[in-house]
Specification:
Number of helices: 9
Number of strands: 8
Number of domains: 1
Order of helices and strands: EHEHEHEHEHEHEHEHH
CATH architecture: Alpha-Beta Barrel
Strand order of the largest sheet: 1-2-3-4-5-6-7-8
Helix content: 25-40%
Radius of gyration: 18 Å
CATH topology: TIM Barrel
Shape: globular
CATH class: Alpha Beta
């Protein structure tokens, strides 16, 4: 145990392998976290876990190995609403990175404007680890996000969240669902909340990330029990799905995944090159505003 009384989590695999296919130029990893320089960027005292270091140079090695050209930095819950590290990385490499921030209910217009100028394209409501805004606060913030062409990213378990999804569907802002909607693979695809998420995607109101299968699968690698979920998402809205590693895979208690194996999952879920290019290049360019 650490002095905080929280269990430390494992570091990412330092030896990622390449995938079985070569990603196309312009490939985007749409969900990563950077955790570094604890003296400059201290973790939040109210965090739910003690993170392992995840410095940018370690992620650079992942990119070089897998063939990733761009990435989306997502503010990790351990930093709360302190987005300084996120902003520093965005400002240092504006062509390579976009950002998704975590803000409080009282965030000012000036702060949102500065974030947008730096490359922040969304705000995350983390309903699992309690960082940042609640759904009620997100509803109040939604018009201000839409005015800045920002989306609302959601870390939530959609199964059993019908009322929340209906409320979200009425907001004047694009929605992005983390980790395929974040529900156990054993739930399957035949339930009302999944249909609601698919409907929002078909209407052009929402996006879903094909990411973090290790959080959802009961089968383990290569996560065959997630194939029906991935198939349904891609079939329903092939222009509304993106892919991500979720590096450095924070707060997982099982075996640490290899990032090359995670990219191989996409070859199984999207076996044809045209669909993979849409998911890896074209769709994230549209969502995160990169030129292809």
């Amino acid at each position: 145990m650490t002095p905080t009384g929280l269990s430390p989590v494992a570091a990412p695999d330092p030896s990622p392998r390449s995938a079985a296919f070569k990603p196309p130029p312009g490939t985007v990893d749409c969900h990563i976290h950077i955790i570094q320089d604890p003296d400059r960027f201290p973790v939040d005292p109210g965090r739910s876990y003690d993170p392992a270091p995840a410095p940018l140079y370690a992620y650079d090695h992942v990119c070089a190995t897998l063939g990733i050209d761009r990435a989306v930095l997502v503010q990790p819950s351990v930093y709360g609403t302190d987005n300084r590290l996120l902003m520093e990385v965005l400002q240092a490499e504006p062509d390579r990175f976009r950002g998704v921030a975590v803000v409080g209910d009282g965030v000012t217009d000036a702060t949102l404007d500065a974030m947008a100028l730096a490359g922040v394209v969304g705000v995350r409501a983390n309903l699992l680890f309690g960082a940042g805004i609640t759904l009620e606060a997100a509803a109040r913030l939604a018009p201000r996000l839409e005015a800045r062409n920002m989306h609302l990213q959601l870390l939530m378990t959609i199964a059993g969240a019908r009322d929340e999804l209906l409320a979200l569907s009425r907001l004047p802002v694009a929605l992005v669902f983390d980790h395929m909607g974040h529900f156990p693979a054993g739930v399957g695809t035949d339930f009302a909340e999944f249909d609601l998420m698919l409907g929002l995607m078909k209407e052009g109101r929402a996006w879903a990330k094909l990411s973090a299968p290790y959080r959802l699968s009961a089968a383990g690698p290569p996560y065959a029990d997630l194939r029906p979920i991935a198939d349904a998402l891609i079939a329903a809205a092939p222009d509304r799905v993106v892919w991500a590693t979720d590096w450095p895979h924070p707060a997982i208690r099982g075996p640490m995944p290899n990032d090359g194996a995670l990219l191989d999952c996409l070859a199984d879920w999207a076996p044809d090159e045209e669909t993979r290019r849409r998911i890896l290049v074209d769709n994230p360019a549209a969502l995160y505003r990169w030129k292809t």
